[in-house]
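Q: May I have one protein plus its fold?
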Amino acid sequence: LARCVRLERPGVTVGCLDLNTGEKGGAGMARMLKTVRTKREGLTEPEIVARETGEGGTELHVARLAEVTPDIQGALPDAFFRGEKTFVVSGGMGALGLYFARWMADQGASHLALLSRSGRAQEDAEPIFQALSAREAVQVAVRECDVGA
């Protein structure tokens, strides 16, 4: 709700403070609020989460985006995509779905079922679909369906 107010009424200052002291009663909350007021000096964040550290202190957390590159290569056993399994990709005829399907084929998947509402590759993804369909070791089935219906 506060995010909507900030977007719809830019002249209104609205902030959110998430407090969790782990204590019942107001004493812990009052102590945490006092600490937050001191530590918040200079922060312009509209949303702050405050948590006790376990040593009687308080940590403040704010939202930040961090660029990460997950290591998905080691997340699955080497033989996961091998064998007679069929892998279903919802949104499989869009660019992202086709990139993912191609990656699965590169890992050894030999049966792919690509689901999409239109049943056709998006124009910019057509070359990826053609290349994937041309692979002899991969059977590609396209099914027109709406998984959200």
